[in-house]
């Protein structure tokens, strides 16, 4: 009886901690709508660069950036990784200087820049 209670307790802790591995779920963001509208994409960019107001989704993205950029979104779910990669690639395609400015703001030490570029190139 004690061993089964212990197993249930351990399993609960493992499942609970694995859920905390990814960022809070916000999988309802319509990435295509953002990318098809330069005004909306610019709004997200201004938000994360502290140059404009943030939407709820913008705030979520902004909170994740300090950890997500240097780690190439290591704690992200697969859907979050795809969205993160898509947004970064879109910013980069529209303006390389803005993209580099974003990277420098959230990864000033450039400690894992190669990891991020690999992630952007491969999605892995």
TrEMBL record:
Residues in coiled coil: none
Task: List the keywords (alphabetical).
Answer: Signal
Q: Which positions make up the signal peptide?
A: 1-20
What Gene3D superfamilies would the database entry show? Insect odorant-binding protein A10/Ejaculatory bulb-specific protein 3
Source domain of life is Eukaryota
InterPro entries this protein is in? Answer: A10/PebIII (IPR005055), OS_D_A10/PebIII_sf (IPR036682)
Q: Which Pfam families does the record associate with it?
A: OS-D
> PANTHER family of this UniProt entry?
CHEMOSENSORY PROTEIN-RELATED, GEO07322P1
Name of the protein this chain belongs to = Ejaculatory bulb-specific protein 3-like
Output the lineage of the source organism: Eukaryota, Metazoa, Ecdysozoa, Arthropoda, Hexapoda
């Amino acid at each position: 009886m004690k061993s089964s209670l212990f197993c249930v307790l351990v399993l609960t802790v493992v499942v609970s901690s694995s859920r905390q591995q990814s960022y809070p779920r916000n999988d309802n963001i319509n990435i295509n709508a953002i990318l098809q509208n330069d005004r909306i994409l610019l709004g997200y960019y201004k938000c994360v660069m502290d140059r404009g107001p943030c939407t709820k989704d913008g705030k979520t993205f902004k909170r994740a950036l300090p950890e997500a950029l240097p780690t190439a979104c290591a704690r992200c779910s697969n859907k979050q990784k795809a969205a993160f990669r898509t947004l970064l690639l879109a910013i980069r395609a529209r303006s390389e200087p803005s993209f580099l400015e974003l990277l420098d703001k959230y990864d000033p030490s450039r400690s894992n820049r190669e990891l991020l570029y690999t992630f952007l190139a491969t999605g892995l």
